[in-house]
Amino acid sequence: MLHTVLGPHVGTPQRMLDVGSADGPSVGWLTAPFKVSLDLDPRGLQPPGGVCGSVLALPFADGAFEVAGAFDVLEHCDSEEGALAELRRVLEPGGRLLMSVPAYQWAWTDHDVRAGHHRRYTRPRLLTAVQASGFVVRRCSYGFAGVFPAFAAERLLRRVRKPASGDDSLPQPSPLVERALLGASRLESRWLRSRDLPFGSSIFLAAEKPV
């Protein structure tokens, strides 16, 4: 789904920055001759393109990249404004920002606390933050609407059950349920080729730094 929504905004960059997902398979489709992966945790970084660092103080020159990806990163930053300002700084004029964030503050549970989240988003909330940082938003859509009922049920059940301290496990669906969820996601990807979704458990955004 990330590829479906954000892929058309990538272009053919020569210089790309991937923040916070050093070895994430969800962004394997993001490629460039010169690609840098940055993360606070060095364990997922592979030389020579792996850099240990923070999005709040990117160790790169102004305008160093044509594309910057930040998937499930912004919610981890205490200073949302600072993170977006740094991403804008290291992009060249006309550079593209691609990102995803988790949706809905009402879905906040202990899992968010243990994951180090500071907030969850709505589409208007994300649009306001990105536009206030000087970006022009090209597309913004919810994602995972097809599995949203299961997501909402799991979040509500998690609140009721209150998992034991130290238990940060996520539910493991049966093979049958997994196939159903994957099927719903494939259908959703087709829909996202031409239309945005009004709800979902994640939000995908593509924006551009003005020339």
Structure description:
- The protein has one domain (2-208): Vaccinia Virus protein VP39 (Rossmann fold), CATH 3.40.50.150.
- Helices cover 30% and strands 23% of the residues.
- The protein has 6 helices and 7 strands; from the N terminus they run αββββαβααβααβ.
- The protein has helices at 2-6, 80-90, 110-115, 123-132, 148-161, 175-192, and strands at 15-19, 34-39, 50-52, 65-71, 91-102, 136-143, 202-208.
- Strands 3-2-1-4-5-7-6 form a 7-stranded mixed beta sheet.
Low-confidence stretches: none
Shape: globular
Total number of strands: 7
Radius of gyration equals 17 Å
Query: What is CATH's topology name?
Result: Rossmann fold
Question: How do the strands and helices of this protein lay out in sequence?
Answer:
Blueprint: H1 2-6, E1 15-19, E2 34-39, E3 50-52, E4 65-71, H2 80-90, E5 91-102, H3 110-115, H4 123-132, E6 136-143, H5 148-161, H6 175-192, E7 202-208
Parallel strand pairs: 1-2, 1-4, 2-3, 4-5
Antiparallel strand pairs: 5-7, 6-7
Main attributes of the structure:
single chain, 211 residues, alpha/beta, Rossmann fold, 7 strands, 30% helix
